[in-house]
Amino acid sequence: MPRSDAATLATLATPALVLDTSRLDRNLARLRTRMAERGVTLRPHMKTAKSIDVARRAFPTGPGPITISTLAEAEYFAGYGYRDMTYAVGISRHTAERAMRLREAGVDIKMLLDTVEQAAIAGEAGRAAGVTPAAFIEIDCDGHRGGLLVTDPKLLEVAAALEATGIALAGVLTHAGESYALTSEALEAAAENERAVAVDAATRLRAAGHECPIVSVGSTPTAHFATALDGVTEMRAGVYMFFDLVMHGVGVCTTDDIALSVLSTVIGAKPEKGWIMVDAGWMALSRDRGTAAQRVDQGYGLVTDPDGRLYPDLIVACASQEHGTLAIRSGSSQPLPELPVGAKVRILPNHACATGSQHERYHVVPGPGGAVEAEWPRIRGW
Amino acid sequence: MPRSDAATLATLATPALVLDTSRLDRNLARLRTRMAERGVTLRPHMKTAKSIDVARRAFPTGPGPITISTLAEAEYFAGYGYRDMTYAVGISRHTAERAMRLREAGVDIKMLLDTVEQAAIAGEAGRAAGVTPAAFIEIDCDGHRGGLLVTDPKLLEVAAALEATGIALAGVLTHAGESYALTSEALEAAAENERAVAVDAATRLRAAGHECPIVSVGSTPTAHFATALDGVTEMRAGVYMFFDLVMHGVGVCTTDDIALSVLSTVIGAKPEKGWIMVDAGWMALSRDRGTAAQRVDQGYGLVTDPDGRLYPDLIVACASQEHGTLAIRSGSSQPLPELPVGAKVRILPNHACATGSQHERYHVVPGPGGAVEAEWPRIRGW
């Protein structure tokens, strides 16, 4: 909703989640253009934003294809006219039944599975609801999590089970989850591997007589480092909308691309220790320490002034529930900035999905120095 | 609210936050008795539970003294008749003004500060609202976060500033935050240090002519390991209500005392890797890895069956947003249990405050095997 008062980042109550729409729009355009050039459908993952207002920036001309991580997201976006969605988490009986209620209501929700048992569950759920389910077979391209290896005989067994139980095979889906642990040098190869594995799986299914219309790959790093996408029909990515310090560490974005930050107020200091205390602890920042395993550990986040200018080497070194401790990064000779009680700072998050989930709404600014133009609610739960 | 249907842990949609009230009541009684024996007021910290229903278990005969970590908590509990509260986060102008609106409404909310600047801010907020503010001076007992050292000349300067600006000195407050990093051997000494520092600060203030009615200490570990509490008037603790794996690692509780868990459903497996996939990822468990620094690293949590019986050495080894990967702890020769798609497990959390905050409500069970008796909402935000 638009704000009726004239809030600015100087007057907003803290801690508050701030979304910079100039950066958001730039990030959205970057991947949209990249995929359009390659003739690949972009199916944004809404698990990061969880917001209809952000979805509308991604799809300015009306609802498009989306990926979702919970059925709460599915039902929410369906309520705004989104009809083409992939539920990218393996199903159980309860979720299959709930997904089929959406399908009954006209939503083309595609499920994800990798076992014959799940095919049976999905088939029963479809019959009970009087609809034809659609499902992806999950493929494992890098040993990250779930999915079948392309060489696993179960690939064809699951496809046969889908056919036998009257489920439409939507296609194959894979996710290069290990790409988050890589750096730019290795990402081109990870993207090519993700592509090649997915296409290989589709080829094997087609050779066995199965239609396999969609070949779906994706992660924010591989989406930005893929050179060729031959045989791939769609790309999934979520965090690319906002970016974050983990993605910066991976080499996908600059800190100037990070659209999400947490506005915070200084509430104390320990000059003898080089500490400044702020009112953003892990409740506002999340417990995510994704940069701890990267070349540069950003603590709980990098600190900027309200206009987004970085304080050199100033990080959130510690976080308790409602307290953050700012300090100069270990090994740096930068001076601690003068930040009296009441001063405002912004904190760039390690992981946009996790930090976003700690908040009920975005406070939307058009760029540095602007007024808060709107509040955009986020959804949560399952 | 009581549930009208007959939900059980077998039928509840997952992931779901489960609260065992037999364990909750036992934990509440344990510290209540301990403090009563020592003649010390227990002022529970509501930052862990964030629930009026849990508060009512802590205070069965009506609202008592509480600690709060956000003004959203303060306003929520004030709405249920809680009038005596300590806001245990350092103030800034905005929070002081908001706290004074509560004071105007008859809530005895006590603020926390450690600078002359904050005393001026609190004084102005009080004058603007036409009320007399009350504030604690924060004392640093272990170098953990904020507060003044007892030997710091600022202690008396801040007390003088409070007097000069017409603020009532509520007392001194300290928090042995470093106690979470200790183990039981060191906790008795940490508790004694917390006590001695707080009493020393009060003694110095009284010697300078200031009334210092409250001497407030607290953390869950020190609350349970303190032998004497001479000179202390009140104890603050929050996580003791639920306990968690970090507290288990510290030595304050057994796993059978942990009242909070996340119910989850099996959605896949990778037997060749020794993995079972469940639908509780970090969104349901939080990103808290507090046990990583302890003797036993519990991953993202220890796994039990729906009745609360531990699977030996089965932990949540990895977590992505909506996926958890169960695996046998590294180095253990325990077999992976048979858990087919659809099986339910419960996950004991590393950190109850963080895991709780990922959920909108508690699903309340009276103990192992019981039906879900009620849903208790939680609040969030600031």
Structural commentary:
2 copies of one chain form a homodimer. The first copy, chain A, has 382 residues and is an alpha/beta fold. Helix content of chain A is 30%, strand content 24%. Chain A has 11 helices and 17 strands. The first copy, chain A, has an 8-stranded parallel beta sheet with strand order 2-9-8-7-6-5-4-3. In chain A, helix 5 links the parallel strand 5 and strand 6. The longest helix of chain A is centred in the middle third of the chain and has 24 residues. Chain A is elongated. The model of chain A has no long low-confidence stretch (mean pLDDT 95). Chains A and B meet through helix 4, helix 5, strand 10 and helix 10 of A and helix 4, helix 5, strand 10 and helix 10 of B.
Note the topology.
The structure is a homodimer of 382-residue chains.
Chain A: E1 16-20, H1 21-37, E2 41-44, H2 52-58, E3 66-68, H3 71-78, E4 84-90, H4 93-104, E5 108-113, H5 116-129, E6 134-139, H6 154-164, E7 168-174, H7 184-207, E8 214-217, H8 220-225, E9 234-237, H9 245-250, E10 260-270, E11 275-278, H10 282-285, E12 302-304, E13 310-319, E14 324-328, E15 344-348, H11 352-356, E16 361-365, E17 374-377
Parallel strand pairs in A: 1-16, 2-9, 3-4, 4-5, 5-6, 6-7, 7-8, 8-9
Antiparallel strand pairs in A: 1-10, 10-11, 10-15, 11-14, 12-13, 12-15, 13-14, 16-17
Helix pairs in contact in A: 3-4, 4-5, 5-6
